[in-house]
User: Fold this.
Amino acid sequence: MRHGPYCCRTILAAMSALWLSSMSPVFNAAAAEESYVKVETAGERAHFAEAFCQTPPERVEAYKARLRNRLPDVHDFDQRWQLGWTRVDGQVRDMSALRDSNPAEFASRIKVNCERLKWMAQNSLRIRPPK
Assistant:
């Protein structure tokens, strides 16, 4: 039985499509995990900013709402945010102790960290062009 010149191309195209469809859950899982990490990291940064950068709670809540709208695929958004928020508790305690023991060192660290957090918060919600 002879196959036409297009038979191999058809088989190759079908196999490629099957392979790509089998890889779709892997790509979706990686994208979901990246979104989860973004929410947790944002919770960490927001807690630090509220504790040391004079960021009012209303501003943190507005940031949280914008991030939630930006990441609609994260169904357990509040749990992920809270996980990040509580993960930074140790750093908050350490920085509070530094504030009491060495105010000058505390002030220099806070200045740098708060400037960095402000820049990160502004850029985290920026829409990036697709790659």
User: Anything to note?
Assistant: Residues 30-124 form one domain. The two ends are 45 Å apart (CA to CA).
